[in-house]
Fold this sequence. Notes:
Blueprint: H1 2-7, H2 22-36, E1 41-51, E2 56-67, E3 70-75, E4 78-82, E5 87-91, E6 96-100, E7 123-133, E8 136-145, E9 152-160, E10 166-173, E11 178-188, E12 208-212
Parallel strand pairs: 6-12
Antiparallel strand pairs: 1-2, 1-11, 2-3, 3-4, 4-5, 5-6, 7-8, 8-9, 9-10, 10-11
Amino acid sequence: MKNLIVLACITLGFTAFAQSDAKAENLLNEVSSKIKSYKNISLDFKYELNNISENISQETRGDVVIEGEKYKLNILGVTRIYDGKTLYTISPEDEEVTISSNNTEDESTITPSEMLSFYEDGYTFKMDIVQNVKGRKIQYVKLLPMDTNSEIKHVLLGIDATTKHIYNLIEVGKNGTKTTLTVNSFKTDEPISKTLFTFDKSKYSDYFINKID
């Protein structure tokens, strides 16, 4: 689930690093400026996890709406709502709501509001290959963790060269696990409900409420 949360969420910022490629830095700055200009972002995405040696293959779809630090994420039948202060994880299958003041499950978890700013700390980057995907020019940037003990071997961030929007993110682990998040729909500044990021307890009166300090 850790890798799923790491890859199941999206928005962007940027800070330059020593030893990073200047062209990659400029491109990420362009993407950052574009993303920061939007009031909100709505995404539909596909998530894939594969490990050939362990015979693991998983594919699912999800969606997320992000506004600043707030977000509402739906994936694998679970809804996560973060109102800027409290995280609500709603599991209809378990009839349980987990309430936490933390926006992460652990220190290495990347949240939706951090997804495309995760490399601000601990990564160097360089330009990688260019691919033509259904007529779209996708420029990849390769991110390398500075921490030699990191479980991540490298991350590839695919950027649409025309729109400067993120197309996909590929994380390759040292254990052979490859996780890929591909954006199917990228919408910005959509009209959203004022209560979208508000947890309505009355809707879950029959659920077990699990509060974590």
